[in-house]
Design brief:
single chain; mainly beta; 63% strand; globular; 14-stranded antiparallel β-barrel
């Protein structure tokens, strides 16, 4: 059984290497975090926790937990173009404590999506293009209706300058609950030397990865998130917006990846946040009732709160493209 599994991983590794110009959407929630990277995760499962973060205006705190699963399946055609199939699932749990524990509340948000598209390879080998359609349900999953659905997509071009440097640019779009959201994309993938990789697509993410040995990698990473979730009520006009209106929700973190066996990565991350908030809007206007002074206000867990720290652990079926 173990021998068969190793053969599958070996074949998978050879296949992925043949499409090494691929750009992979590694974490879709919020704004999908678009990455150019020296590896591909076929399956990625992770748990993230934000310990109690105090609100800006009250003696209250919020603990957030997130479980994420991503699946990515490439299918190569005879002409070396690639069909891309993927899916993702996110579950958030919010636990809120009011002043002197006088108010307690918890709630959940969910996001699930499909990624459908392909990668077009030009004959000269210098250019390729990733094109995806991304249908998504983003809500509290109560009383689902057409108002809980979103539709987005991405076009990302890659220019291979040489064996160590690739440039990437394109456009991401999603029909958020606060309106049409367009994000120009620009990034690169740079293999500085045998140990150091710098890669990312801004404004979504940027990563610096250093190889300690064949089984251990470490580094720092930046990620920006902007997204929205529909809330169920009698009109379905309420929604939660994550992140600052302009800047989104920023994360800066350190990470360590350990390859227990080839193609199976265990990872841990620790970092801090900026502009992290979950605020309720209705028809484009923020619901500004204070959950402490007005206990009957709508969804007291969703507020603007102070920056804090987080940690993240997970496991991935991962194929490194330089191996």
């Amino acid at each position: 059984m173990l021998s068969k599994f190793k053969n599958i991983l070996s074949n998978l590794n050879s296949f992925i290497l043949s499409i090494s110009s691929i750009a992979f959407i590694s974490s879709i929630s919020f704004i999908p975090s678009l990455r150019a990277q020296p590896f591909v995760d076929i399956l990625n499962i992770q748990y993230q926790r934000f310990p109690g973060a105090p609100y800006d205006s009250a003696n209250a705190s919020l603990i957030t937990e997130q479980v994420t699963a991503n699946l990515f399946l490439p299918l190569q055609l005879k002409n070396k173009d690639v069909i891309v199939l993927g899916s993702s699932f996110d579950k958030f749990r919010f636990r809120y404590w009011g002043a002197s524990d006088s108010i307690r509340s918890k709630t959940w948000l969910y996001a699930t999506s499909l990624q459908l598209g392909g990668i077009k390879q030009w004959k000269d080998g210098k250019w390729s293009a990733l094109m995806l359609i991304i249908p998504r349900i983003s809500s509290d999953w109560k009383k689902l209706s057409k108002k809980h659905y979103q539709l987005g997509g991405v076009v990302l071009f890659t220019y291979t300058k040489n064996s160590t440097l690739k440039y990437k640019f394109g456009l991401y779009y999603n029909r958020e609950f606060f309106g049409n959201f367009f994000m120009p994309l620009a990034g690169f993938e740079w293999k500085v030397n045998e140990k150091l990789n710098i890669f990312g697509v801004l404004p979504g993410s940027m990563n610096v990865e250093y190889k300690l040995n064949k089984s251990l990698y470490t580094g720092i990473a930046y990620k920006s998130i902007t997204t929205s979730y529909r809330l169920s009520d009698s009109t379905n006009n309420y929604y939660v917006r994550e992140g600052h209106r302009f800047w989104g929700h920023w994360q800066l973190k350190g990470f360590i990846n350990y390859y227990a066996v080839k193609n199976v990565a265990l990872f841990a991350e620790f970092g801090g946040t900026s502009w992290r908030r979950y605020e309720v809007y209705k028809n484009g206007r923020e619901n500004k009732k204070d959950p402490v002074t007005e206990p009957g206000s709508f969804y007291p867990v969703y507020r603007n709160f102070k920056n804090g720290v987080f940690f993240n652990v997970g496991i991935a079926l991962r194929v490194r493209l330089e191996n």
